[in-house]
Amino acid sequence: MSVYPTGSFENELQRRIYEYVERNGAVTPAELARSIEVDGGHSDSKPARSRAYTESVPPTQDELQSCLETLQAEGYLTDIDGKVRIALSATTADLECDEGVVVIRPAREEDRAGVVETMRTVAEGETYVGAETVAMELDRESALVRANEARSRIVFVAILLPEPAEDEAETESSEERTEPPATDGDVVGWLHIDAPALPALRHTAELTVGVEPQYRRRGIGSSLLEYGLEWASDAGYQKCYQNVPATNDDALAFLEEHGWQRDGEHEGQYCLDGELVDEIMLATWLDSQ
Question: What is the pTM of this model?
Fold first, then answer.
């Protein structure tokens, strides 16, 4: 129940490549070549739990390329727009609305500013503390998506595509649309899944979801939630939960309409506008989806 390829690295070079990409979000092969070093003469040995590295050397181009190809073939890394990234086993989904086509897909590093801005817009008025907390965390860290031995953090986005020019409309209607470039369109919604790797909690994941106010009631939030829960179920998680202030009537109604149950509450957990507000805990079991 983790995106992290625990125990599956064939050698130390594969491990170091994966961990560098995981920490930095999206890197070029040239950056990897400049940044990765291995113990001299040991790039093909099994990764050791403890070894004193007395000499570090860059891998050869062939070694680097071979490890990248293996990690991509095994589904741990992917190359999009010339940058190597953590790979997520997820497809895209399209949703038609009055404003155009909304594409739901795994987030990319280039989406970071849009994701943070949308989270903060939704959290205005201190009614969605969880979203503001995640936005602060994303501002501090160097990678949007994380998948390591301690945790997995996955983000999906709803992207409103720009209207195609008239001379492009006929081409798009007669040909299957390919996945849009990372920089196309605006982030109008997100879904965030955060899961610890502790054995006792590995079956659970915390979820936040939100849509820009002007794009609500178009099915975007429901589509994001369905998409994210399906991914979480496929990834092996059994329970998703989130906690929201009792004053956030919209979030409570939205989740309960989608079958989420109240697990309990923490009295006076938040201080919002000088008033103590209870925290409502909600959860859903994925085997019932």
Answer: 0.84
